[in-house]
Structure formats: C-alpha cells, structure tokens
Design goal:
Blueprint (H helix, E strand, L loop, with lengths): L9 H4 L13 E8 L3 H12 L4 E4 L15 E2 L7 H8 L1 H25 L6 E8 L7 H12 L4 E8 L2 E13 L2 H14 L3 E3 L4 E5 L2 E4 L4 E9 L15 E14 L7 E4 L14 E6 L4 E12 L13 H12 L6 E12 L5 E4 L7 E5 L5 H17 L16 H4 L1 H17 L16 E7 L2 E7 L5 E5 L10 E3 L4 E3 L6 E2 L5 E3 L8 E4 L8
Parallel strand pairs: 1-2, 1-10, 2-7, 4-12, 10-17
Antiparallel strand pairs: 3-6, 4-6, 5-6, 8-9, 9-10, 11-14, 11-15, 12-13, 13-14, 16-17, 18-19, 19-20, 20-25, 21-22, 22-23, 23-24
Helix pairs in contact: 2-6, 2-8, 3-4, 4-8
C-alpha cells in the first residue's frame, strides 16, 4: 500500500500516506484514469481544470509506485544526450523535445504558486560532468546540441571532492518533494469535483471503462492508463521499451554544506556504451541541522543483476563509494531504495492513443528516467487530446510512432541482447535439495513434486510459494533479494512474496500458496 518494495524512500517517510476511500459502487464519468502517480494525478488535475468529470483509481496509495521512489529531478537536461536526439529525429524535433520538458517545469512552478503548495519547489542549476569512461568531446557535442535545441546551457568548471571537473551548466532546472506536490494536487482535484479512490485495483480495462477486483464498474467516455507500464497493452508496447532497476541512497550532510543544485555524470560506457548507467545527485532539506544528499545510479536491466555478477542488494555500497569520492561531506546513510525505469527504444516517452485500440483509450509509459517531467507533459498532452485541442507534441510522443531504424543498434544490442542475457542466466538446474537452508526474508526457485516454485521464508518462519511464470507472458521470474520481490526479466513485472503485483505490465497475481514450517519439516 505504501510503496512498491521493501524499502521506504525519503519522500514516503516524510509525507502522510495519501489515501482515499475504496471504490464500492458503480460510477459513470467523462474520464476514468488508472494510476495514481504523477502522470495520472497530473492528467486528472488538468482535466478537472478543463471542466471534465474525472474518476481516478489507484490500487495502492497515491504515489506508492515509481513516483514515490524517484529522486524528483525536474529537468530539460535529459538522460539522453541532445546530440543523439538530434541525430535520430533532427534538430527541429530536438528543440521541440526541449520545449516540452521546459514547459513541464514551468507548469509545475505555476501550479505550486497557484495552489500554494509547500513542496520545497526550487529552481536550481544542473551540472553535467564527464564520467572517466566517456570521451571529453561529448561535453562539446552536448553543448552545441543543447544550444541549438534552445536550452540555457554553458560550459563551466566545478569542484567535487577536491577535483576540478569540466562540466556543462544547465540553467532553469528544478527540484521538489513529489508526494507533497501530489497531495496538494489531489486536494485540488477533489475540490473541483473529481473523485479519487485508492486500494482499488482495475482488473479489467477496455474502451468502455474498468471493472475492479470486486466487480465494481466505472463507465467512461475516455479511458487513461497511467500505470508506469501499461497493464491494458499486453504485447505491442512491451516490444518498444525495456525495464531497468535503479538504486538510491540518501545521506545526512550538514546544513548548507553542499549548495542546492543537480549533478549528473555522463554515464559508464564500460558497462553499456549504448545506454550508459549514470549517477544523479541532489539535496533536500531534512531538519534544522542537516540536509539530505540524494544519490542515484548503478542501473541494470530488471531481473538481470546476476549478468553483471553484482546482486541487487550489493549495489548500494558501490553507489556509496562513488558518492563519497565526489561528496566527502556525506555523513551516515539514512535511506536507501530502488525504483524502476522504463527505457523506450528511441528515448522518448509514449503518451497518447493506445495502439490498435479504440480512439478513446490512452496510455502513458516509457519515462526514460525523466518521469517527473514526462508525467507532467502527459497531464498537458492527454488533456488536449481528450478536449480536442491541438498540441504540438501529439506526434512527438505518439505511442504508435515507433520505427525500428530510429532505435538502431540500441534495439538489437539492448532489447534482443537482454533476452539473450536472460536465457544465459535462466537457471538450468533448480535447487531441489530442500528448504532448510532458506533464511528469513530470503527467496529462491525450487523444484517440488515436479513443479518449479518460488519459495520465500518470512520473518515468522512461514514459507510462501508462488508459481514462477509471470502472468503477463510467462517468462520465469527471479528473486530480488533487495526489494524482496519476484521480478520478471522480460518486461519488468514485479510481484511481492505473496504474488501480488507491484509493477505491470502483469495485471494478475502469481498464484500463492502458504504452509507453516511444521508441514514441511521433511522437505
């Protein structure tokens, strides 16, 4: 209910749960929105402002998915380099991309002011500096491409950890507390007549509306699925994007010991030259004496941490070692968590009509590591699509736009390569030696009475078993010992130890069995 994993982020721990009542009776509305993250809530807010009748349902609490596990950078300096975007789409399109993210930051700033939201929104500068594995000329190329895209960017030198580093300074970036922002937007939505329901799972979704687990129906003229990975699209969109796990630590630093800014390195090309995993850093007020230094990175394809021989739970230490090198002001680490990023094949989010569906069904997915701005763009764009207003970003973010040549080598190396890695690491021999060595809060795949099962021992010494074929397309799930979840390497579905869905595209739980240890002493 609180969050999609075993760890609490600093945002969740510093904000009261955003909970509403469960949907208990049939409803009829103009728009039904499935998903209570920044995309769904932004869309609901904009539609209410446009005079539409809106119902939003969320199967957890508001922000309990990836929005509550972000680091909340609001940027037009994107994860993907502008020189790559210009190469793929042309300079005019790269400029349109920059304008859309700038408009998203401006929108958040206006809403914070208009609604009087106390969410620590601040305009800050962002600094992109070179990773040791990258080539120095990449900064020059990005500077030239960024200027052509209309960004306020300049070359500068920064000092981190006693090192003088060449960097690009991106002006007019921003940061905020995402859950406090969502909480205020939800309050505004309800005040405008919108309806929000939490603990409400949309089991069935089509162009007429939704049906919940309890058989409650919401009929609507328009249907929007904003669930990070679209649970209503079983095949098409999952061939156009792939999931990554990303890791975050938050450490205490003395108040004002580190100035307010955003920092990113250009990514580790030794790990992945096509999508180099990068580090991202910001600060956030904590109390009267300390701030938080929030550091993220050490990404890997979901379910495939073993391909790099670095388990999920070991990545926080690697992240800490990197952070202390550049930010020696760090004191003790007080939070750690991970999140999931959907990386689209051509670097742009998918926002618009659901492919091969009725014209009144819309999806939002493919955040590409910039979920806060992409989610806000969705609020503006989906509202225009529903109200019939022309929007310059319509074709740019269309989920039907995909062309293979635009993905290029990334498609073949990353997407197809991901499946090859999955097959290489897929267990050929299952542990059928018994469960006596399985420790509390650990899971593994076993073979029992000829069946492959996922086994987990909880803190009460009770064993839980799940069927290990993902309910999306049947790939074999893997145990994530960090977030205590069963993760699917194929399309990123995640399930808790009871088989309940944490992340789509799966929308049906794994079958779960539970037995007390007394019944299993001879296994």
């Amino acid at each position: 209910m609180f969050t999609a994993g075993s760890h609490l982020s600093s945002w969740i721990d510093s904000c009261e749960p955003i909970a509403y009542s469960k949907l208990t009776e049939n409803r009829t509305t103009d728009v039904i929105i499935v998903g209570g993250g920044i995309s769904g809530v932004s869309i609901a807010y904009c539609l209410c402002k446009a005079g539409k009748k809106v119902v939003l349902v969320e199967d957890g609490y508001i922000g309990s998915g990836e929005t509550g596990r972000t680091t909340a950078h609001l940027v037009n300096a994107l994860d993907d380099r502008y020189y790559d975007l210009a190469s793929k789409f042309g300079e005019d399109t790269a400029k349109l991309i920059a304008e859309s993210h700038s408009a998203a930051i401006d929108f958040v700033e206006r809403v914070v002011g208009a609604e009087g939201i106390d969410c620590n929104f601040e305009r800050v500068k962002g600094y992109l500096f070179l990773h040791p594995s990258d080539k120095p000329e990449s900064l020059e190329r990005e500077l030239e491409a960024g200027l052509k895209a209309g960004l306020s960017v300049e070359k500068t030198t920064i000092t981190l950890g006693g090192k003088s580093l060449e960097a690009l300074q991106f002006n007019n970036q921003a940061q905020f507390h995402p859950l406090r922002y969502l909480k205020a937007l939800c309050k505004a939505i309800v005040s405008m007549g919108g309806e929000i329901y939490t603990d409400t799972h949309a089991k069935d979704i089509d162009h007429t509306g939704i049906t919940t687990n309890e058989g409650i129906n919401v009929s609507a003229k328009h249907v929007v699925v904003a669930t990070n990975s679209p649970v209503n699209n079983k095949y098409i969109m999952h061939l156009r994007q792939y999931p990554y796990r990303t890791y975050v630590i938050a450490a205490r630093v003395a108040k004002k010991a580190i100035g307010q800014a955003l920092w990113w390195d250009t990514g580790n090309f030794d790990v992945n030259a096509d999508i180099p995993p990068y580090h991202y850093v910001r600060t956030e007020p904590l109390n009267d004496t300390h701030d938080l230094l929030i550091v993220g990175g050490e990404d890997h394809p979901t379910g495939l941490a073993d391909a790099e021989h670095i388990p999920e739970e070991k990545r926080y230490k690697i992240l800490e070692d990197w952070a202390r090198e550049y930010f020696p002001q760090m004191e003790d680490i007080v939070y750690k968590w991970s999140g999931q990023v959907m990386e689209p094949m051509d670097s742009l989010a998918y926002i618009g009509h659901n492919p091969l569906d009725k014209d009144n069904v819309y999806i939002v997915t493919g955040d590409s590591g910039n979920g806060m701005t992409h989610g806000t763009i969705a609020g503006l764009l989906i509202t225009d699509l529903i109200t019939g207003k022309d929007n310059p970003w319509k074709d740019l973010y269309s989920p039907s736009r995909f062309k293979l040549f635009k993905a290029g080598k990334t498609f073949f190396k990353e997407f197809v390569g991901g499946f090859v890695s999955y097959l290489k690491t897929k267990p050929k021999h299952f542990d059928n030696t018994g469960l006596k060595d399985l420790k509390a809060k650990e899971g593994k795949i076993i073979e029992f009475v000829g069946e492959k099962l996922g086994a987990y021992r909880d803190e009460k010494d009770e064993l839980h078993f799940v069927e290990v074929e993902c309910t999306h397309l049947g790939c074999l799930v893997k145990w994530n010992n960090d977030e205590k979840s069963w993760d699917c390497p194929c399309h990123g579905s995640r399930f808790n130890h009871k088989g309940e869905v944490l992340n789509g595209p799966a929308n049906v739980p794994l079958r779960h069995y539970s037995q007390h240890k007394d019944f299993l002493t001879n296994i």
